[in-house]
């Protein structure tokens, strides 16, 4: 990919072969890369069905969630000249890595290793599924491969490997998997020289939700399929009665989506502890089998994914903070034990 030496103050737009190109530069680097701004901006702002249509037109796999598909399109269309394999990522300079992360619309700060880890996660995993909770459902071989890709130590049993991966997921939380909300809503503003780094440095105010937004709009088939798949993740590892409960709820995934939409509409688009409690009460009133803790947790996890796809304002709750603290405590204990063994 061509690199252009130019000061931040002299950034300008140009055209190559009739396509609008913006030189995207950082404040702390003299290098910049040229990207098709219109194409990138449209990928940021388009919804799932439009992104799938674009992928089909270009012979690109259209499977996966909207963010997975968005990352795939940016890789194949906007950054088609770049080697984004694991080896290619390892060969990038620190400055170039930062520019690439900005093009993907995700966090670009951090050490060189943290940037490599973040880009690898963004290109290869769905952040809604690659969570700390779901690590418990992975076998040792899969965890070993993840450690290798994330440049972590490869020794130790399954628990130790899981702790190392959990440490990376915790440190990278909200840094990958989803583009910045301002880009999703507004795309790249091209009326003035584009500076994606400035997007990241500016405070990200809570956007004003559109009061006319209909959270009960007809869901896409992809959303329902993704929610159904999420309900059944790791079902083979559960007892027979838990499997039965999950299958029962899986058959009602459409009802779950409608319940989430109703709650969002009546609560101004917010999704937090109060909304989750209300969902469980509604499910219980309808006779859903949610007595088991694992089943309740799975229902809330899937419901939260649905709410996020619908554009809900995700409230940070005490349970999330407590979960992060517990994970960090576990990781510290694992590291302490490894240090004593060394």
Radius of gyration, taken over Cα atoms and rounded to an integer in Å: 21 Å
Number of strands: 5
State the low-pLDDT regions, or none: 1-31, 191-213
Structural class: mainly alpha
What count of domains describes the coordinates? 2
Helix segment count?
17
H and E order: EEEHHHHHHHHHHHHHHEHHEH
Chain-averaged pLDDT: 78
Distance between the termini: 44 Å
In the sheet with the most strands, the strands line up as 1-2-3
Described by the principal axes of the CA atoms, the overall outline is globular
Share of helical residues: 55-70%
Percent of residues in β-strands: 5-15%
Biggest sheet architecture:
3 strands, antiparallel
Name the features.
single chain; 342 residues; mainly alpha; 2 domains; two-stranded parallel ribbon; globular
Describe this structure in words.
The protein has 342 residues and is mainly α. The chain has 2 domains: 8-190, no CATH class; 221-318. It is 56% helix and 6% strand. The chain has helices at residues 37-45, 48-57, 66-78, 86-91, 94-103, 112-124, 132-135, 140-149, 158-171, 181-186, 196-201, 221-231, 240-250, 253-266, 273-285, 293-309, 318-341, and strands at 13-16, 19-25, 32-36, 270-271, 313-314. It has a 3-stranded antiparallel beta sheet. The chain is globular, with a radius of gyration of 21 Å. The chain starts with 12 loop residues before the first strand and ends with a helix. Residues 1-31 and 191-213 have low confidence and may be disordered.
């Amino acid at each position: 990919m061509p690199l252009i030496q130019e000061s931040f103050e002299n950034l300008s737009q140009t055209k190559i072969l009739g396509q609008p190109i913006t030189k995207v530069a950082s404040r702390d680097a003299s290098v910049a890369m040229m990207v098709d701004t219109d194409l990138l901006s449209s990928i940021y702002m388009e919804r799932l069905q439009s992104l799938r249509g674009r992928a089909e037109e270009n012979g690109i796999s259209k499977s996966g969630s909207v963010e997975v598909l968005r990352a795939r399109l940016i890789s194949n269309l906007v950054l088609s000249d770049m080697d984004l394999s694991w080896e290619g990522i390892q060969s990038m300079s620190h400055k170039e890595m930062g520019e690439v992360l900005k093009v993907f619309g995700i966090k670009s700060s951090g050490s060189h290793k943290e940037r490599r880890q973040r880009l690898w996660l963004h290109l290869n995993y769905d952040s809604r599924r690659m969570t700390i909770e779901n690590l418990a459902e992975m076998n040792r071989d899969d965890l070993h491969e993840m450690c290798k890709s994330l440049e972590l130590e490869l020794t130790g049993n399954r628990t130790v490997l899981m702790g190392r991966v959990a440490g990376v997921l915790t440190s990278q939380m909200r840094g990958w998997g989803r583009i910045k909300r301002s880009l999703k809503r507004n795309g790249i503003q091209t009326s003035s020289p584009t500076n994606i780094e400035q997007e990241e440095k500016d405070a990200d105010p809570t956007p004003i939700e559109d009061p006319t937004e209909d959270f009960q709009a007809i869901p896409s088939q992809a959303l329902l399929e993704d929610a159904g798949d999420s309900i059944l993740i790791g079902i083979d590892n559960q007892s027979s009665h838990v499997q039965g409960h999950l299958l029962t709820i899986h058959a009602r995934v459409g009802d779950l989506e409608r319940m989430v939409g109703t709650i969002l509409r009546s609560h101004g688009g917010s999704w937090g502890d109060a909304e989750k409690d209300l969902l469980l009460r509604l499910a219980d009133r309808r006779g859903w089998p949610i007595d088991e803790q694992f089943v309740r947790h799975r229902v809330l996890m899937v419901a939260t994914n649905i709410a996020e796809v619908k554009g809900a304002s995700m409230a940070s709750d005490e349970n999330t903070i407590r979960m992060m603290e517990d994970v960090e405590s576990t990781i510290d204990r694992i590291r302490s034990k490894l240090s004593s063994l060394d």
